[in-house]
Structures are given as structure tokens and as C-alpha cells.
Amino acid sequence: MPGMETTTPSARERILATAHDLFYRDGIRATGVDKLIAESGVAKLTFYRHFASKDDLVRAFLEHRHERWMAWFVDALGRRGAGEGQGLQPLFDALEEWFRDPAFRGCAFINSVVEVGASLQGAADTARRHKQEMEQVISELLPPGPQRTARAQAVGVAVDGAIVRAQMGDVDGALSALRGLL
């Protein structure tokens, strides 16, 4: 629009956005640094000025993905009328939206831990923190009580299983199993 300033993403932001898309779509190991450099449109020197190694970029990707996914998750729950202690239906509806997205490739944290969790320091820690924060959001949907945290953890495990099942192509089965928790 006339009169509105547009900002061009920085080289670091372009590299991180490209890594986000490629790592999530194709996998971490399948995505080489040369492809990241080419698709982000930066020079090799620029890439290494921002990320000393691919491992550094993977750690940054996991943090970026966590922030981005949690923002989407909270927003998706809110769009479905989620409220403190009002139940899990908004969770199931939000997950259905995600599972049916053509770009859905499962959980970036589950996928990353499977790919590099044992070899990349901090990857499993970031994934655990992500799951804990997801469970905290889920706990707020549940009625207050002494079992709230334990139930949120159980629902979180069920969500992870449903994610894997949906990733294998059985979205309807995954959603049906989750809705059985009601």
C-alpha cells in the first residue's frame, strides 16, 4: 500500500525461515547447507556469519518452531472457544485443523529427536520443554483439581500418538481416538 513501509527480512531471518520450511518438510539430515544457502538467497559467508554450523541452525530452528507452533496452538484454541476448565473439544478441533493442513508433516520435535536427538546437544531438551509447555496449555482446558496435571500429561501423550498416527496417513483414526478421551 502507498505510504506503508515494508521491511525486507534480514539474512538471518531468511535463513531461519528457509530452514524451518525445509527441515520440517524434508527432514534435517536430508537438507544440506548448500541447499539452505541457495534457497535462502544468501552467500555462504553470510550463512556462516549467522550460524557457525548446521547444528547451530538446527537449535535455532527448534526454538523458532517452538515459538511459532505455540503461538498457532494458543490462537487455534482461542478461535474454537477454549476457556479455563471448559474441556478438550477445542483441542481436538485445533488438532484436526493442523492434521488436515496439506503442509502437515507431523511434530517437528518428535521428528527432530528421532533424526538428531542423540547426536545434537540440546535438541531433546528443547523437545521436552516444548511438550511441557503444550501440556501446560492443555491443563488449562481441564477442570481444576488434584489430577489436572497428571491428566494433562496423559492427554499430551495421547496427542503425540495421534500426531504420529495422522502422519502415517490415518487422520480420521487419530482424531477418533482422541475424541474418545471426552
TrEMBL record:
**Keyword field contains Transcription:** yes
Entry-linked Pfam families: TetR_N
The answer on whether this UniProt entry bears the keyword DNA-binding reads yes
TM annotation in the entry = none
Which InterPro entries does the UniProt record give?
Answer: Homeodomain-like_sf, HTH_TetR, Tet_transcr_reg_TetR-rel_C_sf
| Residue intervals of the HTH tetR-type domain | 9-69
Residue ranges of the annotated DNA-binding region, renumbered to this chain: 32-51
Q: What keywords are annotated for this sequence in UniProt?
A: DNA-binding, Transcription, Transcription regulation
PANTHER family documented for this protein: HTH-TYPE TRANSCRIPTIONAL REGULATOR YJDC (PTHR47506:SF1), TRANSCRIPTIONAL REGULATORY PROTEIN (PTHR47506)
Q: What is this protein called?
A: TetR family transcriptional regulator
Q: Specify the species.
A: Pseudorhodoferax aquiterrae
